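We store chain and fold; example below:
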Amino acid sequence: MSEELELHIGSVTTSMQKAISHLEAELVKIRAGRANPQMFDGVVVDYYGSPTGIAQVANISVADARTLTIQPWEKNMLQPIERSIIAANLGVTPQNDGTIIRIFLPPLTEERRKEIVKRVQGEGENSKVAIRNIRRDAIEHVKKLQKNGMSEDLATDAEKEIQDITNKYIALVDKHLASKEKELMSV
């Protein structure tokens, strides 16, 4: 196989791995009934005029299986953090006692679990679409190389290899989704 083709297939693998990494990051943010500080990764707070992640202005810790505590490094950040959490629409209500913010995660109902599973499946579908788009672009690139003089056998082998890589990453997405769904549905 030509060096350019091998480099291209390597970049396809790297791009698909990034799609998997993104899926993993999104799945961590979806709460499964247990307290997890990473559920606040996407929440930003107004810190003296600049949007800043909560983890940069406060210490987030797990008090017990259903309780998180957020202790800001500056006392005047309590209100902005509380407003940011409410605005993020995470399905939790912060309780401010003047020094720390406590977040109690209610036990998930069957209905809420099913909603979350649908959201997880949506994230999985987004990852599959991204992987398929990477495959499409890679195959188009191989066809361009074929028009520029690459042999048909080499092009067919490259397309088959790209498809095999795609199948592997789609199966990995399915594995992540099944794992998260099992975690969500277990009481």
Notes: The longest strand covers residues 58-64. The mean pLDDT is 86.
